Amino acid sequence: MSTGNAPTISAGKVVTLHYVLRDDDGTELDNSAGGEPLRYLHGAGNIFPGLEQGLLGCSLGDRRKISVAPEDGFGEHDPDGVQRVPRDTFPAETRLAVGLEFEAEGPDGDPILGRVIELDDDEVTIDLNHPLAGVSLHFDVTVAEIRDATAEELEHGHPHGEGGHGHEH
Ligand code: ZN
Q1: Residues with CB under 5 A from ligand 1 (ion)
Q2: If pLDDT is split at 50, 70 and 90, which confidence band does 166 have?
C-alpha cells in the first residue's frame, strides 16, 4: 500500500477468515478450526453478499459477527422439496437409513443432494432442500490475512492457493 496504512478489506483484496458458523439456537454448524480457513476475493461474489458487505472496511485481526437471513443464504425451506417416494425408487443395494445423503437430479437436470428424513416399510421420505435451507446463518469471523489480489486472481474472479495456481480453470 502506497499510503502506508494497514490494509482494509475492499474490492480486489484476497481475504482469509477464520470463522464459526452457528444457527439461531447457537448450535455450531461449521468451524474453520476443524478445517481450512475461508479465503475469498472481495467484490467477486465468492461468498454470501451479506457476509461480504459486513466485512467491507475491516482490518487485519478484526472480529465481526455477521448474520445472513435464510433467503440470503441457502434459501428458504421449500415444502415441495419434501417428498414420499416408494422404497424401490432407490437401487436395491442402497442401505437406506435416516440421514442418508444421496445425489438426485434437480429440476434443471443438475445434480442436487437429497437426504432421507423418514423411513417405513414401503416408503421413504426425502428432503431435497439444502441442509441449511431455512436456517439463519450467524457467522463469527476473524480477519486472518488481507492482501492485494494478483492480476490472474482478478481475471479469474477467485483467489489462488499459497503455491500459485492450483487448479485447471
Ligand atoms: Zn483461477
Answers
A1: 156
A2: low
